[in-house]
Amino acid sequence: VESVVKIEGPADWKNAADEAKEDRNDIPDFIKNIVEPINAQKGFDLPVSAFDGMEDGTFMAGTAAYEKRGIAINVPEWQQDKCIQCNQCAYVCPHAVIRPFLLNENEKENAPEAMKIVPAKALKTEEPTFYTIGVTPLDCTGCGN
């Protein structure tokens, strides 16, 4: 107890509210009415009737596409100067957070300015080919692979 240090936070944090989310029409009812409340720790508030048609525990497939939780404390960062372009990082990532891409000259020129892009190694093509790694932090769970 002697090493515990009290940290004062801003007083307005006591009444902090979540930012309002924009209404999206492309989200299935299952996601809006069941998955989102469960992920918001409000699953116990769901009525039994919300699960009509799912009495056997069956859930809709593909729900991970709508679950952008952003829970990782540490997110992978591509270090292009050390990368040998083997794609093993993408292979071991269980949530498809790390994704390799091959780009042609046109795609490279139209890519965001901040995107790290290097020439592709060990790929023989007539046109120049480029390599990049995309990382989606909102999908990452920070497993450390």
Automatic annotation (TrEMBL):
Keyword Metal-binding: yes
Superkingdom of this protein's organism: Bacteria
SMART domains: EKR
Gene3D superfamilies: 3.30.70.20, Pyruvate-flavodoxin oxidoreductase, EKR domain
Biological process, per Gene Ontology: response to oxidative stress
Swiss-Prot/TrEMBL keywords: Iron, Iron-sulfur, Metal-binding, Pyruvate
Domain 4Fe-4S ferredoxin-type: 74-103
GO MF, any single term: iron-sulfur cluster binding
InterPro entries (UniProt xref): 4Fe4S_Fe-S-bd, 4Fe4S_Fe_S_CS, Pyruvate:ferred/Flavod_OxRd, Pyrv-flavodox_OxR_EKR_sf, Pyrv-flavodox_OxRtase_EKR
Stored Pfam families: EKR (PF10371), Fer4_6 (PF12837)
Protein name, UniProt field: Pyruvate:ferredoxin (Flavodoxin) oxidoreductase
Originating species: Clostridium perfringens
